[in-house]
Amino acid sequence: MSTAQPKNVMIIAGEASGDLHGAMLVQALHRKTRRLLVYGIGGEAMRAAGVRIVIDAATLSVVGITEVFSRLAVLKRAVNTAKQMLRRLSPDLLILIDFPDFNLHVAAEARRRGVPVLYYISPQLWAWRSGRVKKIRRRVDHMAVILPFEADFYRRWRVPVSFVGHPLLDHGAPPVAEVQHWRRSRVVGLLPGSRDGEVARHLPIMLQAAKRLAAREPDLRFLVSIAAGVGDDVVRDAVAAGGMPPGTEMLDGGMRRILSESRMVMAVSGTVTLETGISGMPMVIIYRVSPVSYLLGKLLIRVEHIGLVNLIAGRKIVPELIQHEANPETLARTVAAMLADPRRLEEMREQLLNTRSLLGGPGASDRVGDIALALLAGDCRL
């Protein structure tokens, strides 16, 4: 960048995964130029990357339609604060990461003030509430998307877009267990989600299923990944509600160990299922929300699958147990049937590994950084 004056960049990531991807993007930007001042909304990863955090993203994270209502006052205050930051600091670029119900409000203020907007990691408009793409077309200068089919969606709506690849591949691809070790493994991993609400809803179901499996197959072991930021009280309550088979290990984080040691996993729907899938790890995806959120979702959601690996493949590679089907007995029965069918597991592993080639390879953060610098330089020919 030729100017001697630092450029101001405002960035907003409202959830833990967005905080990580935002941090990697800021690191990529700083590798390309030191003439940036970056501030906004995020978490510890972005703070460590040099972002001045004005609002901690941990206060904003919610899941589901009715769950949003319970945090409405907090979200509204945060939106107003973000708009005040735009007015007071006049950034040269606004970078938004996912979190659409919040970020699209801020994008409208940026448009009124002539601040260019880069949106990184698309909201799932292709799944539900696709009408929001009209807001994006009015308020966003460029979309940087991480799933291959998203670029076609935005092109159909005449929104400037680049497929940048998936940032999961930027910080080291998930491990692929050595095939002979994997075939011998008698470990089942439990990935109950990254938010308190997800863990509270799903971990008791997974633990109850694990108890049923252990009763049928006493040689099975279970590893449970507890994501950073999940409250100890949430885990204690979940264990009290679900019980725990003997020898079960609770791991702080532990995702990579689970992917290295397990024969298969039970996973809550979300980005973790993609990380699991591109490691070739067979899985069952489960998901529950509040009854009202589920009923509204049934009316609004337009895709056949919820698992990212199934969406990317365009077919159901791994089973999905949603809402009332996400119960201990059905989950245990599904896992037991998969463990009893080595050929099915081998085929699933091969199909999952093939999805890695569809994600564009590493370098997403650098590619988004190049788009951000082009927008800062006033280049609209992206």
Shape: globular
The CATH architecture term of the largest domain is: 3-Layer(aba) Sandwich
Q: Order of strands across the widest beta sheet? A: 3-2-1-4-5-6-7
How large is the count of helical segments?
17
In terms of DSSP E residues, the strand content is: 15-25%
Summing up helix and strand content along with how strands pair, one would put the structural category as alpha/beta
For the CA atoms, what is the radius of gyration?
Answer: 21 Å
Q: Kindly, what is the distance between the CA atoms of the first and last residues, rounded to a whole number of angstroms?
A: 17 Å
Name the poorly predicted regions.
Answer: 63-67
Major sheet attributes: 7 strands, parallel
User: What's the CATH class of the largest domain, please?
Assistant: Alpha Beta
Element-level helix/strand string: EHEHEHHEHEHEHEHEHEHEHEHEHHEHHH
Helix content percent band = 40-55%
In total, how many beta strands?
Answer: 13
Q: Quote the average pLDDT.
A: 88
Name the descriptors:
382 residues; alpha/beta; Rossmann fold; 2 domains; seven-stranded parallel beta sheet; six-stranded parallel beta sheet; 13 strands; 16% strand
